[in-house]
Design brief:
single chain, SH3 type barrels, about 120 residues, alpha+beta, about 25% strand
Length: about 120
């Protein structure tokens, strides 16, 4: 199954080589920038092959909720600015399936639902 951009769905759960993230490099504390502005700071991340992600604390932006973003939406990591740039808008992130801190680890249905949301055609 391919997305509009031609990437395979499984690519959604891995860091793109062009993003500039090397496994093992800490991202916790980095600010996250959507295509239309900041959304918060990374509070957790995973480099696990086939299941890589970041969890972002959105602060007051969406009432203090955390959001889980698959690593495949990361466009680039700027280590000098300590920022991660993602290829989604604030509204796309706000409207994503709710982050469930108990289900995101090892729940393939949750990953499937989140992956389907982020793989749908945009625009």
């Amino acid at each position: 199954m391919k997305s509009k951009e031609g990437n395979f769905v499984s690519d959604l759960w891995g860091y793109a080589p062009a993003a500039g993230h090397n496994p093992g490099n800490m991202l916790v504390g980095f600010k996250v920038e959507a295509t239309d502005g900041g959304i918060g700071k990374i509070v957790r991340h995973s480099d696990q092959v086939g299941s890589a992600y970041i969890v972002v604390d959105t602060g007051v932006w969406i009432f203090g909720k955390d959001v889980l973003l698959p690593a495949g939406v990361i466009e680039r990591v700027d280590r000098s600015e300590q920022k991660v740039y993602v290829s989604r808008t604030k509204d796309e992130i706000k409207d994503a399936p709710e982050f469930d801190k108990d289900k995101h680890l090892g729940d393939s249905d949750y990953h499937q639902r989140l992956g389907s949301y982020y793989q749908r055609p945009r625009g």
